[in-house]
Amino acid sequence: MSESKSNSDPGRLPVRYEQQRGVVRFCGPVEANRIFALCDEIDSLINEYYYNQVVLEIDSPGGEVKSLLYYCEKLKGWRQHGVRIETVALTLCASAAAFMLSLGDIGQRRAMPRASLLYHNARIVASSQIPLTSDRLEKLRTSLSQTDSDMLVVLLRHLYSDVSESCFVLLEELTCRLPYMERKVDAAAFKILKNAKVNKLAAALEKTTDGNSAGRLRVELLHLVNTGLHSKQLTIASSNNLSELQQTLNLSPAAVQNELASAWLLRRFEHYRDLFTQDAAMCSEEAQREGLIDHIRG
Fold first, then answer.
1. Number of folded domains in the chain?
2. DSSP structure string for 105-120
3. Could you tell me which of 38, 70, 73, 272 has the fewest CB atoms within 10 Å of its CB?
């Protein structure tokens, strides 16, 4: 048996109260007020109705990255309290909404058979009233690239949570911090590579206050680490299957296991970055093959 909440307030989202779970339907764009309303409904299901299982039904063209990041922080808190979040794509699930779908609990992410799913990198629609100089365009490019990297690392942490945290820390430094002058680099993150030259460069970069020196060190360190990790990728199965990675690690010396896992993560990062760059809708079957959902709902 289930009960639906009366929805006289147009700002409220449709909610169903089922025996073991609460169901919230999120329709429309991902923007601040709608995400606040969604999170309030989920908080109510957890705190007032004592559900520890929530289903989020999504039909959305996507929207704001900042609103998505707010949802991600709330999602982290719910999970810390043992709440399970299932997700279902109904007809359209795109952009920020597609990330919401894929960030549902692993094994509990579903899409309707004819749902259209669209994953893409961050983008901005510039107003014709805003003059765009080359300096402004470069700042926009950098901001979008940073957002892409940040969101991809969030997604990978969720998809491959069994991989060592130290490997994710290295991936974050390599993709989200090292390429961007305004972001501070943590030299300790590179120590899992057990490479004396890498450690020396990272330590020097962490200490330097000279902009020109920092830029040179960033380029050199990025090239050195990327070259090393890409050489390790040759020994790793090309599958996205985590069990195949674990088999490879079990057959490898302990001294190189973290480096191999980091190389595998970097390749997954590059795969999804390239996939999302295509900015093309995919069917449920393709999303399932890519590990972005788990099941197609009949």
1. 2
2. PTT-EEE-TT-EEE--
3. 73
